Amino acid sequence: MDGSPSAIVKLLVPKIPLMLKTALWHSLWLSPTSTKWDLRTEITVNIIRSLMDGSNPSPMGKLQRSTIKDPGVKGKMWISKVTMSPPPEDDVRQALFKAIDDMKEGPVNYTQPEVAPVEAEWTGYRPDAAKDAEDSARSEEDNYERLMSDPSRKSEVTILYFHGGAYYLMDPSTHRGPTVRLAKETGGRCFSVRYRLAPQSAFPTQLLDGLVAYLSLLHPPPGSFHEPVPASHIVFAGDSAGGNLSFALLQLLLQLHRTKPASQPHPTIRFHGADVAVPLPAGVSANSGWFDITRSMPSLETNAHYDYLPPPSATASDPFPADDIWPTTPPRGDVFADLSLLCHPLVSPLAAPSWAGSPPLWIETGEEMLTDEDAFVAARAAAQGVTVVWEQYEAMPHCFAMMFEGLETSRRCMAGWGRFARACVESPEVVRTGGTFVEARTAREREVGVGGISGYSFEEVRGFMDRAREKRLLGWEREGKSMPKPNL
Questions:
Q1: Residue-wise pLDDT tens digits, 195-207
Q2: pLDDT digits 0-9 by tens, 428-481
Q3: Does the keyword section mention Hydrolase (predicted)?
Q4: How far apart are CA 348 and CA 300, in angstroms?
């Protein structure tokens, strides 16, 4: 987005009355969050909330263009932009489509995307650079070699990172702050994927890009800068929709492992001329993971006073004015996926019946609108024998650690995320299931049992999701729109 001084002034001047009202109510302890947040946090959240209230929505294309501008390489970071060539074989696509069909519970409709080159960024921490230093022009390969030779890189951790932005916004370049921080906290590096955006590219395009990116780390395509990265050195990570993609990719890999021949230690896929193994990564993590595309869980309404995202009751069924990318042709009813797919485990990981066999998971949430879905996935996975590290931050909104970097709770969150990733790679035997609740004002911590953080059964959760999906379908039909014929 435009961060120039004139643009910031233009944005903030109309918000002065809101800022003054917020300051007054906060100082008089009249706001519902005045005992939890400092004034700066409360003003910032209220401004963001006012910009996202849906009363004057912008066309989707305009929003998308405003969030994919590269801010440039500046400060304490190494950045090397790369493109992973697609495999000439069709095996990756067919493995994905088979998993989608095997995991469905009824008729679904989706367009089968073609495999494409996957763009990404290698990101590393550069401690000796000045805070405002701009990177001089070098080749991307030279940048990669400098990243790899930096003395601060003390670990073999490789974070496979998927950015957030509801699948239709953002770009890896907008997430350099958190990926550099993760590189610093782990002593490793990040591989941030530029997956194809919705609505131009619908599910399962993003999952296909994620699978190609993972295979490209394990088995580098011709011309790659990097050497093969062992799965035991790779940790998936993502925020919001990127957390969804991290956990959906995990579910896809688990499905490949469930259906492999018993005689094989790992499933295999034909990739760039070789039959390659597809092991599980060392760990998987999500910061404010968006695990439920149906938007059905109760905390979407009950926790709205702590969040800046609009709750479902405050948004229209189709809040975006028509433009050149929305609505799509043929229509599908949701920006990311056809309505028939909303409860599919590879679209909404909340619906996954099993996490058995998963590597360790790190799941973080504030006291936000997505808390219920994050808590349920964590509790269900732990009950099935998966190692789960759960962190919850009192009264904090969606992805708070990435927006309010100066808060003690934000520093605590990013440090915990990095610590988990490094432990999964360097000392997996010390990673244990456990939960932590962190107070907002004091950052004091208390332990919580992961098994008790969600009070919902799987049947109740599926009921929430099914009803939300049916409501979307009925709304679609009331508007006189027809759905494409499902793939049976």
A1: 999 999 999 999 9
A2: 999 999 999 999 988 899 999 999 999 999 999 999 999 999 999 887 776 655
A3: yes
A4: 15
Which residue type is seen at 127? P
SS3 for the chain, per residue?
Answer: CCCCHHHHHHHHHHHHHHHHHHHHHHHCCCCCCCCCCCHHHHHHHHHHHHHCCCCCCCCHHHHHHHHCCCCCCECCEEEEEEEECCCCCCHHHHHHHHHHHHHCCCCECCCCCCCCCEEEEEEEECCCCCCCCECCCCCHHHHHHHHHHCCCCCCCCEEEEECCCCCCCCCHHHHHHHHHHHHHHHCCEEEEEECCCCCCCCCCHHHHHHHHHHHHHHCCCCCCCCCCCCHHHEEEEEECHHHHHHHHHHHHHHHHHHCCCCCCCCCEEEECCEEEECCCCCEEEEECCCCCCCCCCCHHHHCHHHCCCCCHHHCCCCCCCCCCCCCCCCCCCCCCCCHHHCCCCCCCHHHCCCCCCCCCEEEEECCCCCHHHHHHHHHHHHHCCCCEEEEEECCCCCCHHHHCCCCHHHHHHHHHHHHHHHHHHHCHHHCCCEEEEECCCCCCEEEECHHHCCCCCHHHHHHHHHHHHHHHHHHHHHCCCCCCCCEC
Per-residue model confidence as pLDDT tens digits over 233-263:
999 999 999 999 999 999 999 999 999 999 9
What CA–CA distance (Å, rounded) separates 37 from 15?
19
CATH architecture observed for domain 73-478: 3-Layer(aba) Sandwich (3.40)
- Two tokens at 291? 């695990």
Give ranges for CATH 3.40.50.1820 in the chain: 73-478
